[in-house]
Amino acid sequence: MSKIYIPAADAEVWAQFLAEPVKHWRRGYSARTLAYSWQEANDFPSEVSAVLSQRFPSAELLLALPEHQVALPGGSRPSQNDIWVLAKSQGQLISIAVEGKVSEPFGPTIQEWQADPSSGKTKRLAYLLSLLGLTSAPDTVRYQLLHRTASAIIEAQRFNAAHAVMLVHSFSQSNEWLQDYAVFANLMGAGTAACNTIVSVGNRAGVELHLAWVCGNPSYLSK
Prior knowledge:
The protein is α/β, with parallel strands linked by helices and about 220 residues long. Helices cover about 30% and strands about 25% of the residues. The protein has one domain. The longest helix has 16 residues, at about 145-160.
């Protein structure tokens, strides 16, 4: 993967980084909706900034990378973040892995993901659980939430950031899949998880970890 990045002139540029642009770059779908929301803000979208401010006063976006891949042990497929953000608040760096949603689920559960078992999957799951400070996870937990959160921590370590945030930016008008997020947040020790809230779940692998669910501006669904 190249380490050279070129600034995006408009949201349409984001499409080229998708695994399946024709399938995923569609009006009302998360990839396109998220791209227009963040590109037009040229910063944190206002609703994201409002939620982050609950924990990080005057958070400043330093860098945002669409479809940013983070390598994981066990197999060749990386964790592909919809957006990865490096931010700063009160002199401390923050690594933020953003997962965009409209109606799309969080992918397979751990049980479904392991339906075709392999040594690589066993190695990867063990790594993710260790990084997240878990001894085990219920089979019903969504695998994507594990590796997306791990991405935030891994990049925090790489950039020497004190904090990592796994942030779901959902444009669903009925908060679809919020329950799956809440189950994961509870597993991580957050207790009750709610919309437009950021929760802290302690130190994981030397990084202070936080989880957030942000309700996006529905006007971007028609972009």
